[in-house]
Amino acid sequence: MDKLRMYFDEMVVYKDLRNSNFFSALSLPSFMRDWLLRRFEDENGQFDMEELVEFIHRFIPKKDEWTAIKGRIVKDNERVKMLTKISLHIDIKTGEASFALPDFGLSEKQTIIEDYVWEACKTELLNGQEVWGMIQLGYRPPDDSVIPKQPGKIRLLSFKNFCPYSIELDFFKDARAQFSIGEWIDIVLGAVDYNADGYKNEEQKLTMLTRLLPFVEKRLNLIELAPKGTGKSYLFGRVSRYGWLSSGGVMSRAKLFYDIARSREGLIASNDFVTLDEVQTISFTDVDEMRAVLKGYMENGVYTVGNHENTADAGVILCGNISKETMENEGTTNMFQELPTVFHESALIERFHGFIKGWNIPRMNDDLKICGWALNSEYFCSIMHELREDTVYRTIVDRLIHVPEGADTRDTEAVKRIATAYLKLLFPHVRKPEDISLKDFNRYCLQRAYKMRSIIKMQLEILDDEYTGRDMPHFTLNEVGK
Questions:
Q1: Which residues pair with 113 in a beta bridge?
Q2: 264 membership: H or E segment, kind and range
Q3: pLDDT, tens digit, for every residue of 32-75?
Q4: Does residue 89 contact residue 97 with C-beta atoms inside 8 Å?
Q5: Does pTM surpass 0.85?
Q6: How far apart are CA 137 and CA 24, in angstroms?
Q7: CA dihedral (313, 213, 413, 471) positive or negative
Q8: Exposed e or buried b for every residue in 392-421, given b needs 16+ CB within 10 A?
C-alpha cells in the first residue's frame, strides 16, 4: 500500500484487527480508534501501548465512571477534561445556552455554557446538533443571594473539535484519480476495516460497499436482509459518528422524530442515517402513527408531529435476518413477511429506494479483518459526510441517464439517487460527465441501482395486486455532449 500512503499521506493508518485484541477489548468505535492511531502511531505503524492506554484512561471514560467524575467536578471542584459527544440546547425564553452529554445521561437542565465560553467555542459547537470533541468541565455552585436563586450547574469551560484537521474534498478527489476502480474498491473496504483479499469476487465486495450508500447520499432509504453474522451491526453502528444504530426494543415516534413533551428533536434530525437493526424484534408504540409519519418523511423529507414541522436528511435503513429458504425463492416469496406490521403496507415499502442482498456478503471471519495500511476511518467517514452536500454528482447522473416516457416517478428517483450514491462512493473524482466512461457508469452505478430498485418492485407485486404489471422503466445512457 505504498501508493496509498504516497497520495493520502497522513490520512493513512496501520490497522491490525486480525491479530490485536487491544481495541476490541476497549469497545471503541472505528472513528475513535483511528483518531487515536493517527495521534500515537509512528511512520511504521507502531505505537507506545502504555502511552495510549494512559490517554484513554485519562480522557475517554466509561459510562460507569461518570458518577465518580461528577463527584470530582461538584464535590472536589476539579476541572475535568474528556473526549466525548456533546449536544447543544438554547433556551428561547431565557437566552441561556446549555449542553448535554448523551453518553453519560447528563441533561441540559443540569448544565450551562456561560457567555464568554460560548463566544470562544460557538463556531465549533455549531457544526451540528451533536459534535464530538475534547471538553473541559467545571462547576458553578448554587447562589442563594440572588433572586431568583441560582442552582448549581456543571459548566462547559472549553471545547476543541474532535476533527483536528479540515476536510479538503478537492484533495480527496484528486488523490482518488490516481487509482483504478479495482484499487479504489479495495481502499474503501480497508477504510471501513475490511480486508479486500478476504472476498471471493468483486460482487461480494460491491455488495458489502452498498451498505455505505446512505453515508454519502441524503435520504437514501434501503432494506437489507442477510444471514446472521455478516457484519450489518458493525458497519452501520461502529464505523461512522454521523449515523445511529437502533437494535431491537421499542421505537416510538418521539424517539425517532420529535418528542412533544420535551420539545426535543429525535434521531432523524441529528444523524445522516438511522438504521433499525434486528428489525424483526423492534416493536412500535403506535403502528398507524409511525407508518403515517414515515411515509411523509420518506417521500419528501418533511415530518409533522402535532404542531411541529421539520425537515431532515437522514436515510432510513431496515436490517433484518433472512432464512435460506426465503433467499432461494426471492422471486416468489414475500421477503418482508417477518418485518413488523408497520412495514406490511405496500405504500410504505415503495418509498424504500432499494434492496441489499445481504446473502451475497460472506459471514464475518478473520480473513475479512483488515491488517495493514488503510485510510483512517474517521477521515473517510468525514469525507462521506461532506460528499452528501455535493450536488454536482446528481447533475452528472441526470445528464447521463435517459429516462423513457411514462416512467414511474418513484422508480426514476430511486434509481437516480442510488446511482448518485455509487458515483460519489466509487468515482468521487468525477467532476463532469466526460470524466467517467459510459461503460463504467453503466456497470458500477446504473445497473446496480436498477437491480436494487427492481427487487423492491418485485416484492411490491407480491405484496399488493395493484402493482402487478408495473414493470421497471427501461433506462438507457445518453452520449455525453448530445
A1: 97
A2: strand 264-265
A3: 888 888 888 888 888 888 888 889 889 999 889 999 999 999 99
A4: yes
A5: yes
A6: 28
A7: negative
A8: ebbebbeebbebeeebeeebbebbbbbbbb
